[in-house]
Amino acid sequence: MISVTEAIETLLAGSRRLVEAENAELMTATGRTVAGDLVSPVYVPPADNSAMDGYALRFADWPGAEAELSLSQRITAGSVPSELETGTAARIFTGAAVPPGADTVVMQENCEESETGVRILKMPAQGANIRPRGQDVEKGQTVLRKGQRLRPQEIGLAASLGFAQVSVYRRLKVAVLSTGDELVDPGTEAGPGQIYNSNRFTMNAQLAAWGFEVVDMGVARDEFDMVKDMMLEAAERADVIVTSGGVSVGEEDHVKAVVAELGDLGLWRIAVKPGKPFAFGHVRGTPFLGLPGNPVSVFVTLLIIARSYLFACQGTEDRGLHAVPQKALFSKKSSWREDYIRVRSGSEGVELYPNQSSGALFSTSWADGLVRQATGSEIREGELVDYLPFAIFS
């Protein structure tokens, strides 16, 4: 048995980026990985601008609350102001450029305008309500780093700097293959001894959600030659192969034998629950990850073990999984394996799904995260545990 940490470290030690850079339209780049540092060519904002509707003036020109200042101009967002005349104020609106010579904006609620001018009833500190040029982003500032994954907020940031395209890595092609005579696809009738193939859909959906290009290979029956042919095709069509089932020690588990013949195979028994049998190797030089066959084991090992490796192959910086301390609303005895427990969080803490079987797939939908229980560690009700919300795996 090897630990989860050892398994991940071994995978990462043998990983490398498998994709090249390309340009992508910004509108279609969500989820892609930045292929080079993005440096701002502009200041944001490009000029000093008003943080609110009000009046712009020189702080030194304020004559007191009883006297008026004449209005020399009206400045709306998008217009270009003139230099402020000495002893005057300018009507200004949120986002509008502050006129040269003005150093303070007074919110309109503290002013009283008349036909002849405006009285500043309450003067703020000098420089108030002005957003200076470059307050958000300086020209020449690196705003996105190579290896960073583009979320909606990074897309908006790039747009604010004027980028219509970004350099990103090509989407990693991941071939997905399920194995087993008992599997039938949804939409067909399951006969005696058959079950619907959930693993195919779980893997396809998760890999697509991570931004990879999925090459769906379907199902391989428990026949050596069929598994071999499909693995060879997968190696030709994809950058990485991910399978479910067929890597245990049964006579009909042909995946491990095929991989050993076509390349190299490391068959690991990982001290993880659910999970344990996990394979890693190469098929004609194409990396191969063999997940267990039980549906929850597929889900957990994909998130906990395979994810970091796949991100490394994509060129994506993986900052690791940072657990959130939560109070356990349950007790659980220690295990000789590192256990990933399906839980749901609430205002009082995290509650346990009652059936933690590796076949209880409904538990993954009921839950909103996992509790990581360290090897040999008992969980007592009321103590803090390591909670991994599903959102951190995105």
Notes on the protein architecture:
With 394 residues, this protein is an alpha+beta fold. The protein folds into four domains: 4-19 and 171-314, MoaB/Mog-like domain (Molybdenum Cofactor Biosythetic Enzyme, Chain A); 21-41 and 142-169, Alpha-Beta Complex (Molybdopterin biosynthesis moea protein, domain 2), CATH 3.90.105.10; 49-131, Molybdopterin biosynthesis moea protein, domain 3 (Molybdopterin biosynthesis moeA protein, domain 3, Beta Complex), CATH 2.170.190.11; 324-393, Beta-clip. The mean pLDDT is 94. It has seven helices and 26 strands. The chain has helices spanning 4-13, 152-160, 198-209, 224-237, 255-262, 295-314, 362-366; strands at residues 21-25, 38-39, 49-50, 54-57, 68-75, 88-92, 104-107, 111-113, 118-120, 130-131, 142-144, 165-169, 173-179, 183-184, 195-196, 213-220, 240-244, 263-269, 272-273, 277-283, 286-291, 324-327, 338-345, 350-352, 369-373, 384-389. The strands form seven sheets. The protein has a six-stranded mixed β-sheet, with no helix packed on it. It is elongated and about 95 Å long. Helix 1 runs parallel beside helix 6, helix 3 packs parallel to helix 6 (295-314) and helix 4 (224-237) crosses helix 5 (255-262).
